[in-house]
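Quick one: examine the sequence and C-alpha cells given here and explain what the C-alpha cells say about the fold. Here goes:
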Amino acid sequence: MRSWATEELKYAALPDKRLNQRLIKVVENLARQPYASIPQASGAIRKYQSYLQFMEIGTNRSRRHN
C-alpha cells in the first residue's frame, strides 16, 4: 500500500529518483510531528543530515536556474 505522501508527491519532478524518495520521507516525518523542530521530527541525526542535504540540493538547483 502506498503512503499518502507517495500519492500526493507522485508528480514531483526531481532530477533523481532517490531525491523523490527522500522528499517523501521528509514530508512523512514532518507530518507526524507538525509542531516539532526539524531535528526532532527527523528522529535521528543521520535523518536530519539527510534532510539538510536534500534542502541544499534544492537551493543550489534554484540558484542555477535564476
